[in-house]
């Protein structure tokens, strides 16, 4: 039975110390029995066979015995975890380092030593720690850099193949040092050989080189942000993308290239899985479209499809360029097809991941479009609100002005009614006198005098128009619109009481104090509410500027006599608007004035004629009364 055979083989090893070939044959028989047989390995450990082979590997002077002993140790350790724990010591790692650095050690002995390191660290956290603490991992990295030269293209050559086998074993051992369980410290140490791995990928796309390197890169950068960023920083991701493009070009003719493209795809996914933002590097190589082509290959198995779809998902997770490329290359229908036709749960999850990215992309695109339209709408709405506020302010001010104008018009109408009653009473007595002095419109002379009596205020009119008051004061007289002088005099004081409340709205202080005034009488449209404006502004003009400007205007535009010019210099009737006057005091003031204007001169002459008529009437009445008394 197995136990008896193992006891006999162990005795053979002990008694055949001088026969290395017999020891080698016994070792080969032992590992063939223990290979994939945990119980046999455990029994061989219990009878002391495991430690005897360990001592034999260190003490034997025969290279073939050393190699066979190390290989047998590796098989037993790999078959039984208790044997692994028994031999996982720093002393064994140090012995293995000696085998690797000795000049007399051949490639096969180094390869067997690397194999023992591999089984010691596989699925063993303690072994990963020992390999780092003893410096064994640094030696492995040195072998990765120096064992095989990038110039050696023919890997099947007799001289090259042993070195390649050692290099391949080193790659596998480094993978075990950083993964299962993940060892972040060992990952960070292994980052030092990334430039050499990149150089290998750039110089060779043979499966014998690409597969070990991609496996090593995938496990070293897995779940390690530092390793991922470093690999991307040296251009490693660009190199992988280029290798993928080259393999996809060859996959049309070679099934092997297609399979190797899947391996590169897994490595790409490992490099961006924890940092999808780095997938933007792949956008310029159109990696998503190449992955979709690879996914459409019917020879792929389920595991390969899962790897490709997950890589597409990580590429499109945050990168808009890759998302657009997915849609442009009909990636969405392909994902839906995989989702509906597949029965594999993991494959369905991977396809759902990609579809979820598409959903998020659509939502983000909708939000961006909404935000853009909202920004535009907000800007337009803000402009409209500002315009509305401005218009509301304007309407508010306009309404206030209109309200004050209406109140002033009402008061002005009441005062005018009172004035008209007074005029009607006095007109009975002097109607005959006034009829004799009516002006004939057809008389050219009288029209000329009438023209001289008109006062035009074009600047004042334009200023009022600018203030937004319409209808504005006009300078051209209209028919039947002459202002009654007695009416103006009788209502001047009332107007002066009512006007100041409107002055603040019109901001009369902005009106220049010097206005070019032609003529003597303000002529306005006889519309209620606006006649007081001219009266107010004329009565508040500066006296000196009024007289000086009027004098300059008369000098420049008129060729009248010197006496006529002197009459225009200064008139007390024009400058006494603010004084409290009645008919008697006003007449006396005009009589004492040396330089009366045409307007007040005509008024004074008319009053004198009126007084003469009254005296004549009174004299006639007196004569009739005396005759009646004498009778």
From TrEMBL:
Gene3D superfamilies: Leucine-rich Repeat Variant. GO terms for biological process: homologous chromosome pairing at meiosis; meiotic attachment of telomere to nuclear envelope. It comes from the Eukaryota. PANTHER family: TELOMERE REPEATS-BINDING BOUQUET FORMATION PROTEIN 1 (PTHR14014). This is TERB1 protein. It comes from Mohoua ochrocephala.
